[in-house]
Every structure is written in structure tokens, then in C-alpha cells.
Amino acid sequence: MSLIPNIHGDANALICGASRGIGLALCAALLARADVARVWAVSRQASQSTALLTLADAHGGRLLLIDCDARDEQALVALAAAVRQTCDHLHLVISTLGILHQEGAKAEKSLLQVELAGLQASFATNAFAPILLLKQLLPMLRKGPTTFAALSARVGSIGDNRLGGWYSYRASKAALNQLLHTASIELKRLNPAATVLALHPGTTDTELSRPFQGNVAAGKLFEPAYAAQCLITLVERLGPAESGGFKAWDGQAIEW
């Protein structure tokens, strides 16, 4: 099966948030495929990541490392310019950006714990950075089959919210879902072969989830490599007809 529906030839892929966790696992999985020509691995310190440098040594010029803080729109402008030097069309872009309790964000247990700084930190990474990434890469997503996917979370579902808490994280992921759904409508007009997806990878053993893994049911905590493969399977299966959707790792639709 081709990496994305209806693609002819090898794919160019870009992973933002590539230096660890699911992002790193996605880079490794994509590079293991014969139908992927090049992968751009983007993170704040991609060029200093031991894991990415090891992958680059193993795969030569197929892996390109770019340092970029996706919360800085000027850095995203520079990222897009750098990619355009050697690529006029990206077939796949996946944003794995997300914070829950890092870098000023908080996993609030009650309304009294909600603070402006935590809200701003959560929204900057979880919602604003992915949509600004899409904005800057748009010129490279207009010429044929292409998929832009961003990692969302089931707790961003308003209809599925029965426990409360995690105000900033829930709200920022809900905002991401709306931004992606809105962008999917515009891209459908600009490029009918484009697909935009909000994807929930399941609870994965990463820095984001580690403090909360005690409540995860047996068999429901995934290794990054497994989550990455589930995401790639979704990308292979879901085309323009599903653009704008919110899907879980197993392909099930999640209510908004």
C-alpha cells in the first residue's frame, strides 16, 4: 500500500516534533520504507539530537535535520524556505507537537488551578504551532496528493468529556481540532487531493503521559513505535473523503 492514497512515486515527508517519542518513531518507520524518498526531521534542536543523528548516519541524505521552534512563526517561515530549496511538494506532514505539564503548561485538577500562563503555554504549542506550520507549508501542499496530520487527543473531545479537569490541555486540543477542520475545508478548494486529519495516537509511553500512566488500563499503554505504525496505517487508509476528520489510532471516529 502506498504511503498516502493515490500517490505515484516515492514520498517526501516532514515530521515536526521529531527528536523524541512518537515523532522520532515516525522518522524511523518512514525511513524503513522503500517508498519514502526523504524525511525532514524538525525540532528545536534536531541537529543536536543523538537519536536523529544516528538515524541520519544510517540513512544518509534521506534524512534532513532542521532546527526550528514551531511556536515562533518567523522560525516557521525559515523552515518552509529551507525545505523549498530542495522540494516543491510534500506528500506527508505530521505534527506531533504537544505539551500537557511541561514548559509552563499545567494538568489542572480544578478550576482554581487555571492560570493565564498555563493556558497560553498550552495553546501556543498544542493549537497555534500546528496550524501555523500548515500555513507556512501550504505552498508545498497544493500540487497533488498530500496529507497533513496533527496529533490531537481524545480528551480534546467536548462530547466525550465526562471527567473534567485538564482545562488547558482539553481546550487547546479542542481548538486544534477546530483549526484543522476549518483548514480542511479551505484545502479541499485549493487542492482536492489534499487530506487534513486530527489523529489520536492512544496513550503512549512518552514524557507527556509518564506522570499519569498509573491510571491506564492494561494493554492500553503503547510503545512509540507501535503508535507510529498505527498512525502510518491511518495515513495510508484515509484520503480526501475523510479530510477534516478526528480519528483514533484504531481508525474509529471520535466525536467532537
Description:
The protein is 36% helix and 16% strand. It has a single domain (11-248), classed as 3-Layer(aba) Sandwich (Rossmann fold), CATH 3.40.50. The protein is built from six helices and seven strands; from the N terminus they run E-H-E-H-E-H-E-H-E-H-E-H-E. The model has no long low-confidence stretch (mean pLDDT 92). A seven-stranded parallel sheet has the order 3-2-1-4-5-6-7, with helices on both faces. With 256 residues, it is α/β, with parallel strands linked by helices. Helix 1 packs across helix 6 (224-237), helix 3 (73-84) packs parallel to helix 4 and helix 4 runs parallel beside helix 5.
Topology:
Elements: E1 11-16, H1 21-31, E2 36-43, H2 50-59, E3 63-67, H3 73-84, E4 92-95, H4 116-137, E5 146-151, H5 167-190, E6 194-200, H6 224-237, E7 245-248
Parallel strand pairs: 1-2, 1-4, 2-3, 4-5, 5-6, 6-7
Helix pairs in contact: 1-2, 1-6, 3-4, 4-5
Descriptors for this entry?
Rossmann fold, globular, 6 helices, 256 residues, seven-stranded parallel β-sheet, alpha/beta
- Report the CATH superfamily: NAD(P)-binding Rossmann-like Domain
For the terminal residues, how far apart are their CA atoms? Answer: 30 Å
Question: At CATH's second level, what is the architecture?
Answer: 3-Layer(aba) Sandwich
From the alpha-carbon coordinates, what is the Rg to the nearest angstrom?
A: 17 Å
Assign the CATH topology: Rossmann fold
